[in-house]
Amino acid sequence: MDDLLQNKEWHSVSYNHVLENLNTSSKGLNSTEAGKLLKMVGPNILHRQNRESAFKILLRQFLNPLIYVLLAAAILAITMGKITDGIVVFSVIIINAIIGFVQEYQAGKTIQGLLQLIPENATVIRDGKQKNIRAAELVPGDYVLLQAGDKVSADMRLTFVKNMQCNESILTGESLPVEKNTDIIDADAGVADRKNMVFSGTLITSGTAEGVVVLTGINTEIGKISALLQTTTSVKSPLTKSLEKIARGITYAIILVGILVFLIGIFRNYTFIDAIFFAITLAVAAIPEGLPAVITIASAIGIIRMAKRQAIIRHLYAVETLGSTTVICSDKTGTLTLNEMTVQVLWNGKQKFNVTGVGINTDGEILKNDSGEEGNEEEIGELIRAAALCNDATLHKKEGHWKSVGDPTEVALIAVAGKFGINEDELRNKWPRLDELPFDSAKKIMATLHQSPSEEKIIYLKGAPESVIPLLLNSEKSLMSFDTEQVRMEALQLAGTGMRVLAFACRKVDSKHSALIMEEDLCEFTFLGIQAMSDPPRLEVKEAIDSCHNAGITVKMITGDHPATAAAIGRELGFMNAERVITGKELQNLNTQELQEIVKNTNIFARVSPEDKLNLVKALQANGEVVAMTGDGVNDAPALKRADIGVAMGITGTAVAKEAADMILADDNFESIKAAVEEGRRVFDNLLKSIVFLLPTSIGLGLVIFIAVLFFPSEGGILLIPMQPVQVLWINLITAVALSLPLALEAMEPDVMNRPPRKPNKPLLSSLIIFRMILVSLVMAGGTIGLFLWEYNIELSMGMAHSQAISEAQTMAVTAMVLFQVFYLIDCRSLNFSVNKIGLFSNPFIYIGIATVLFVQAAFVYFPFMNRWFHSSPLKAEAWGVSAMVAFSILIIISLEKWIRRKYFKNIKT
């Protein structure tokens, strides 16, 4: 039994063979056998991995090298009696941990969504009787009865089928319901082609069937997806990787320099406590405590902007990843297309008519292909009427929205009738249906008998062209001349473009004819024409794809649909190399290296399985691509989770797809992905500006402390240090955050979608940026130390007490460093251009940030409680003036550096 459960080829043998191998029959299992099997194979449920506890997630927020250094600094500060300093450092750690915890706690619900796809009950034959049992109790060998509206509860081999269709889009991505049968199918057929089976979680849309359960629980197709989701790991964003490298570098540097400072202090005869104090101060100075907060808040601002453009971000890191995307792998159905069948072409045997408007609505016209005039009653009236009458679907507008009931193909026929001015309810009242032959999947036709307003009886016929053509009058007897071969060729030509083609015919019968359709009535029909339909591309998608191509982003289609359909959509939307289509069957014959080579030049993949989608994403990532993957079905979930950025559909997407994704499109529109990429690039640009603004401050502060340890004496038993640890934190966290946040609100660069994506392996900080940061750090450190010594010596010369002179000099040093940041902020608004180029007032938030910082710095200087907390002292007005003059030098120096680079090094960019 175990070997059979792993067999993937139930579709390739007769159902009698399946029944025999599973020791069952149409009378089902007996309850005793079923009970034994249930113990052996386990319940028909999808097991869910235990979610990580909230405590574990919170604990992980502290597993960061920079946090280790800060924790050590805080503990040492408290040990040395500097309680306020230690509490401030601890506060910084706790704030960052809370932000990270809230981000991560949202994930982990994906498998729960899969559980909801399995129905609670199933109708089976057991002990020779029909019973309703819990779906969890199904076992291989159970004989199950299915009917329209049922959700399938296990993978089954069908043994009897009557006009049954099944919606398998959650597994295959194919928008149309699949006709089922009991025929034997090739062993290597993919899931979408196994028409003699039904799969757990799919929906029976019409007809009835019987089948034998062959696979349950984790062994079903949906179970395999569940297993893939549990073993698939998410990848880190490019920014996260870059920041981790920077964090490691900063940590190692801080530890080494901290040890060096400690040793220098001992060498210079500082007490052990004083040497430790200097090392702590250096650590606090060099760590950019404000950086995690800035990245989080800047990303959150990007999330708000994206939401306004219909892109809802679930994870903060996804904002930046979008800006680095190099490949977008898009599902076809519902993303590139509407997932609403639409009639596009009519042919009456002589002339073609194009149908305008898309989707399930009656907006549009039917125009002659040659003249553009509207089709009239004589030319297409009978064809459209036949399609509306030989039809069981309905389409109505309710509360401003179109609602449909029935097969998508039939709904499309009703919609085109509405475009011709026909209301199906009124038509059906005038032409009452007397009898019908329901659609037969074997004969591929449907026929209905109607009584016309003039009391005539007419049979309308629709079906596949190859099934309708043999039932037509020969051209000599027909009132309307047509060529059977021409009909066949026209149907083939339309089908070759990826459209679904239906032929229509009618036959008038004697008014005394019975109100029933007899078998002998299915002959000598008059040909009325053809209607060809497809799931049309969204109107705005082509422009969005062109925009992505201009931005250096490759767009690939990965779909479970038919290769011809995928190729047709690809050509229409302007996919590069659209003629080349690779199927899932071909992919499965490739090794890892061959797959990585194939994905470089192939942009359309069809008839792919969930494993294929996942492997394609992995292959692209192995090639160094940053991959965005879109999808809406359960079959897309593993690839969505693995991709650098998973994008789910908000309207048509399953709960599973949404939980596996990083971003949800509120309008299911590819255009919104392009908009999100724009915003992602803007966020990255602005985050880089924030990082380039923050890091020199920390480096500059570290230099201030290091130089003080190397050269400054200890005066009167008091350490001569330009800033105390708590003052350093004030600069790094409060002022740095308030000043860098406005950079996150800078406008989008004009060339944002006309430049290639940032290479994933490219360092976050280029050599030019590093040079600039070193220059800024040196200027800030030199200016701050110079002002500290200047103020300290002036106050001493005026007879001020040594401790008070140090306090005022430290306050002036802090003020100078804050003003350096104010002027440097203006330079950071663009890394390449002058302030005049981007507009002095194009971002008013910059000036709000500056005003806020100046206000709180004034509080730092003059408010008594701030003086107590931060060991600061009030300053005279001239001290502010001197500090501002020195700090202004940074604006001049960096503006000059930009000008020199633009003039003499034009090809070098940050």
UniProtKB/TrEMBL annotation:
Q: Which InterPro entries match?
A: ATPase_P-typ_cation-transptr_C, ATPase_P-typ_cation-transptr_N, ATPase_P-typ_cyto_dom_N, ATPase_P-typ_P_site, ATPase_P-typ_TM_dom_sf, ATPase_P-typ_transduc_dom_A_sf, ATPase_P-type_domA, Cation_transp_ATPase_P-type
> Key word Translocase present in the record?
yes
NAD found in the keyword field: no
Task: Please report the stretch or stretches of sequence annotated as the Cation-transporting P-type ATPase N-terminal domain.
Answer: 9-82
Write the record's keywords in alphabetical order, separated by commas: ATP-binding, Cell membrane, Membrane, Nucleotide-binding, Translocase, Transmembrane, Transmembrane helix
**Gene3D superfamilies listed in its UniProt record:** Calcium-transporting ATPase, cytoplasmic domain N, Calcium-transporting ATPase, cytoplasmic transduction domain A, Calcium-transporting ATPase, transmembrane domain, HAD superfamily/HAD-like
Q: Mark the transmembrane ranges.
A: 57-80, 86-102, 250-270, 276-304, 691-712, 728-748, 769-789, 809-826, 846-865, 877-896
**Where is it located?**
Cell membrane
Q: Which family does it belong to?
A: Belongs to the cation transport ATPase (P-type) (TC 3.A.3) family. Type IIA subfamily.
What name does UniProt use for this protein?
A: Cation-translocating P-type ATPase
Output the lineage of the source organism.
Bacteria, Pseudomonadati, Bacteroidota, Flavobacteriia, Flavobacteriales
